[in-house]
Amino acid sequence: MRKRDRFLTGILLILIGISIGTLVALYTINDDLAPLSEVRYTEITKSESPFFEDEELADIDSRFVFKTIASNVTPSVVYIETIIPVNTDEESESGNFWNRVIPRRARTVGSGVLITRDGYILTNNHVIEDAVDQGIKVVLNDKREYPAKVVGLDPSTDLAVIKISGSNHSAITVGNSESVDVGEWVLAIGNPFRLRSTVTAGIVSALSRDVEIIDDNFRIESFIQTDAAINKGNSGGALVNTSGQLVGINTAIASQSGSYQGYGFAVPVNLAMKVATDLIEFGEVRRALLGVSIVSVDYERALQIGIEEVKGVEIVVLSENGAASNAGLELGDVILKVNGFDVNESNQLQEKIAVVKPGEKVDLRIWRNGNEFNQSVELKILEQQQVDDLVGIPNSTPEEPESQMFELDVDFHEFDLGFRVVAIPTQDTGNVQLIISKVYKYSEAWNRGLKKDQTIVSVDKIEVEDLESLKELVRKNLTKNGSITFEVLDEDNARGYIELKDN
Known about the structure:
Elements: H1 3-28, H2 54-60, H3 66-73, E1 77-85, H4 89-94, H5 97-101, E2 105-114, E3 120-124, H6 125-128, E4 136-139, E5 145-147, E6 149-154, E7 159-163, E8 173-174, E9 185-190, E10 198-209, E11 223-226, E12 238-240, E13 245-253, E14 264-268, H7 269-282, E15 288-289, E16 292-296, H8 299-305, E17 313-318, H9 323-326, E18 334-338, E19 341-342, H10 346-354, E20 361-368, E21 371-378, E22 380-381, H11 402-405, E23 411-415, E24 419-425, E25 432-439, H12 444-448, E26 455-459, E27 462-463, H13 467-481, E28 483-489, E29 495-501
Parallel strand pairs: 8-13
Antiparallel strand pairs: 1-2, 1-4, 2-3, 3-7, 4-5, 6-7, 9-10, 9-12, 10-11, 11-14, 12-13, 13-14, 15-22, 16-17, 17-18, 18-19, 18-20, 20-21, 23-24, 24-25, 26-27, 26-28, 28-29
């Protein structure tokens, strides 16, 4: 046999041996010689107990108490539905049979806060002011429903009190708005967009804000500003601190669209509770009167009068026989503090006086000719005819009642975007002026900045000459474009352009 053949034969025998060995091993293997891994189910550890208790987390950061606050406060915040009439004066005078038989109505929503266990609810005036008889329904957090009656309204602070039956409701704990500081955490609780019991969190962004949203000669605005999200439907809801105490009544949002865009405003609870107490006890607000008109001291005025710091409010008018005059205050006096609290803006002084009852005394810190001293003043009661003496409100002529406006046989129309226009004949030309006589709060027109007493000149660059052409242009352009742009003139003939959208 040749050498090469022997080599190949050897390799073949080796391969055959390996194969036979493998087969023998497969047939003879057993668990004892080659045990397999046993698969077992392991037990998963579960626990309902948190790693940190709520109290421990609260010590770490105040935000960790939000859950507890929401749980405790939400039952005291209620959902309010109000039925309001939507018939316009024009429809009533037109003699439309069906509008008289079946009046047109709309349903609006808002929030309120239970301040007593026997059912007194603090809310905004604009939430319930136009309600029809028996047109207010309150829904509690546990979904129980109650009819509500109006106890009293105060348009000057945009506050109101309503009442439901019952004696064991979840009343909120009232705090002190004077202790609220910029930067502290707050929660806004209400019913935005009909979403019940919504809780949002933010910080106090500023204090004593005057944003000119209350349409009243006696308006008092000294809002708490917050970046907690507040939207339509939050009005009348609660602003609470990290102790779960009520510090404000949510009232308005800073927005051109009508929805939250960064800031909201709340009436300080000290002012709100003074109003609520008066409404419950007397059915009206009894407001204290200092008997001065004042202006905030700015930098230039501080230099003129020689005051070292830019602070305080200066008395520019003293009412004869008013509280301030009787106490010896003089023109040019600068009020620095009221009962120990700084007042550096007119609206701050208004708020501090508004929380005091007529007949009570306030302690004023006065600057006069370089000297500071304290002066006690006994406040008088504000009578309706004393508009000119109201603190911080300039002299003005009271408006005639709207019912008198239409005795001149003028034509008018209510637009769905939230404003009324009257056509006033001009004596010299025989033409008419299209004047905005009313802008409804929180409407599209109000949100976009349309103002009462402005004159409409054109719509989308088309000049309007009478009320009928205005109505037709508004209707056509809204249908076609979904928006309209008014060219308007104010009382000083300043020209402006305002776009309204049909949302």
